[in-house]
Amino acid sequence: MGNSPAGTWRRSMAFIGSNPGLALHPVDRHGVHIPGEPASCFASFWIAEWSKWGTGNALLIATRQGWRSYGSNGYFAETLANELTRYFPEAARFPLAEITHTQDEFDVELDIERGFRAVGGKAELEISGILDRRQFLAPDFQLGGSSAALSNVYLPCSTGRLSEFGVEWPGAPTVYPGPRGPSSSAYVAVAESWAM
Predict the structure, then answer these.
(1) Taking the alpha carbons of 33, 37, 40, 41 in that order, is the dihedral positive or negative?
(2) Which helix (H) or strand (E) holds 8?
(3) Which residues of 84-114 are buried (b: 16+ CB within 10 A; e: fewer)?
(4) Which of 90, 15, 28 is nearest to 56 (CA)?
(5) How far apart are the C-alpha atoms of 103 and 110, rounded to whole Å?
(6) For residue 3, what pLDDT is reported?
């Protein structure tokens, strides 16, 4: 297809839904970020209103110790990890070799005024403190040897927390200025679509 506009229009829709994400960076005992320290983990929560791989929810967590997923459908979670999440800039330092799946069911709250919360029996993700709301377009988002057209409404947030089996990950998201407004390693992406 190349990079031509005509090639973009020939793509088929692959996903419609929402995708909150959180990368936690190390902080000191006063809660201040430690300069130069990369994120210790990245969590991506997929809410599929429709996708060619199925519907429902999946929580993906990438760490230096490996990748894990939570949800009711292991195939759905693994496919989202392999096809999309592994190529996110936030996931780049956590190479995906394999993913371990844990069955879980989530109660999900998504409010574009307040933020996002997903509470499961084994894992929990919360993102809040919305700083901005703006459209994001990436007509040629790179997915390894191919690309996709990504569109969403991006809501950078100031706070976030992640826990697995009752143990909360340390750290905090990083908020930084961008050319179009504040950006953050904690965000909620709504009205998201991927065409591949």
Answers:
(1) positive
(2) helix 5-9
(3) bbbbbebbeebebeebebbebebeeebeeee
(4) 15
(5) 22
(6) 46
Cβ neighbors of 106 (< 8 A, separation 6 or more) are 57, 59, 70, 71, 118, 119, 120
pLDDT tens for 38-96 read 999 999 999 999 999 999 999 999 999 999 999 999 999 999 999 999 999 999 999 99
Residue 1: pLDDT band by 50, 70, 90 thresholds?
very low
Residues 6 or more apart from 8 whose CB is under 8 A from it?
Answer: 1, 139, 140, 149, 195
Sign of CA dihedral 56, 131, 180, 161: negative
CA dist list (Å): 112 to 30, 37, 44, 48, 53: 30, 30, 17, 17, 26
pTM (two decimals): 0.92
The half-sphere exposure of 144 on its side-chain side, counting CA atoms within 13 A, is 9
> Cα–Cα–Cα angle for 191, 192, 196, nearest 5°?
145
* pLDDT reported for residue 36: 80
- What is 114-151 written as a DSSP string? TEEEEEESSEEEEEEEE---EEEEEEEEEETTEEEEEE
User: What span, in angstroms and rounded, lies between the C-alpha atoms of 193 and 49?
Assistant: 10
Tokens standing for residue 181: 């407004």
Residue located via tokens 């031509």 = 4
Structure tokens at 15: 């996903």
